[in-house]
Every structure is written in structure tokens, then in C-alpha cells.
């Protein structure tokens, strides 16, 4: 987790998140079955970007990397957004990732992780009342997600496709 000021691009690693204010751009690479969750308060221009790997931490003992999971990563990022002046009641979400990266393999082996990640993120956001404005989920290609905190715009770079703004 990193709280930043100033004009910069901030990289968000796998199983991590960052919170920043305008005019930062938060960028995460390698969204295959992982899901990128951008949360934004358009009034204070505070936003966060989370790169989750797995849907549910309850299946694991001694979880130390909370941002790795949707069920723990989303709440901790919201708390950091609050500390930066964001209001949870004004947050909106944009999502990307959740691909099926291992086509051709036994589905029991890969456990549809991209689909499960996407479903868990949607469920958590719905339960806490955060509206999803846009999403670019599924498919079978990796993505890069670029989140501009000055306006809430998210640009998706998908391998083999043109840029898409959501």
C-alpha cells in the first residue's frame, strides 16, 4: 500500500494496491485471471487500484497479504481511501481482468479462477453499496489497467486489441 501526492505514474503489483489523489495514474500489469478493481471518489478525486489474485481468503491459514484476496483487499483499500479524504458513499468502481488464461486445460484443474474472482468482486461491491460503472472482464487475454485519478477514466490495454476506455 502506498499513499502518494504529486504528479506521477504509480505501479500496482500483483496482490497489492495503491491509493492516490489527482493527478496520479495508477497502473497494473498482468491481469489474466486476476481482477483489477479501481475505486474512485469523483468529488475529492481520491482513488485506489487493487490487483487481486484470488476471491476468498477464508480457505487459507495465516493470511498475511490481504490485497491478494477480494474479500480482504477491497475493505482495506476502502479504509485507505477514507484516510485520504474519500467518502465510501461516493465511491464508484471499474473492473478489468478475470480472464480464462488456461484454455485447453482440464477445467477442474484451473477451477475457473477468473470467473470466480470476477463474481466475488461484484458480490462484495454490491453488498457494500458501491456501484460498478464499467467492466472489461472475461475472455482469454491478459490486460493492463491504467486508472487516471484526475477524472476517474480507466484505459484497458488488451493483448492483440486496441486501447479501450471504460
TrEMBL record:
Protein's name according to its UniProt entry: Probable chemoreceptor glutamine deamidase CheD
Designated gene of the protein: cheD
SUPFAM superfamilies named in the record: CNF1/YfiH-like putative cysteine hydrolases (SSF64438)
Catalytic reaction equation(s): L-glutaminyl-[protein] + H2O = L-glutamyl-[protein] + NH4(+)
Function: Probably deamidates glutamine residues to glutamate on methyl-accepting chemotaxis receptors (MCPs), playing an important role in chemotaxis.
Keywords from the UniProt entry: Chemotaxis, Hydrolase
Enzyme class at the top of the EC tree: hydrolase
GO biological process, one term: chemotaxis
One Pfam family linked to the record: CheD
Documented EC number(s): 3.5.1.44
Ribosomal protein in keyword set: no
GO MF term (any one): protein-glutamine glutaminase activity
Superkingdom assignment: Bacteria
InterPro entries listed in its UniProt record: CheD-like_sf, Chemorcpt_Glu_NH3ase_CheD, Cytotoxic_necrot_fac-like_cat
Family: Belongs to the CheD family.
Amino acid at each position: 500500500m502506498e499513499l502518494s501526492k504529486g504528479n506521477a505514474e504509480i505501479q500496482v503489483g500483483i496482490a497489492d494496491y495503491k491509493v492516490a489523489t489527482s493527478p496520479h495514474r495508477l497502473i497494473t500489469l498482468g491481469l489474466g485471471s486476476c481482477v483489477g478493481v479501481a475505486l474512485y471518489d469523483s468529488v475529492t478525486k481520491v482513488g485506489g487500484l487493487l490487483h487481486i489474485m484470488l476471491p476468498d481468503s477464508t480457505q487459507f491459514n495465516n493470511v498475511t497479504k490481504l490485497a491478494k484476496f477480494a474479500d480482504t483487499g477491497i475493505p482495506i483499500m476502502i479504509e485507505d481511501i477514507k484516510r485520504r479524504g474519500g467518502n465510501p458513499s461516493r465511491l464508484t468502481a471499474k473492473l478489468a481482468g478475470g480472464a480464462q488464461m488456461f484454455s485447453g486445460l482440464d477445467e477442474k484443474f484451473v477451477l475457473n479462477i477468473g470467473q470466480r474472482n470476477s463474481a466475488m468482486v461484484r458480490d462484495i461491491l454490491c453488498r457494500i453499496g458501491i456501484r460498478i460503472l464499467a467492466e472489461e472482464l472475461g475472455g482469454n487475454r491478459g490486460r493492463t489497467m491504467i486508472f487516471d485519478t484526475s477524472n476517474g477514466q480507466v484505459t484497458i490495454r488488451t493483448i492483440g486489441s486496441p486501447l479501450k476506455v471504460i
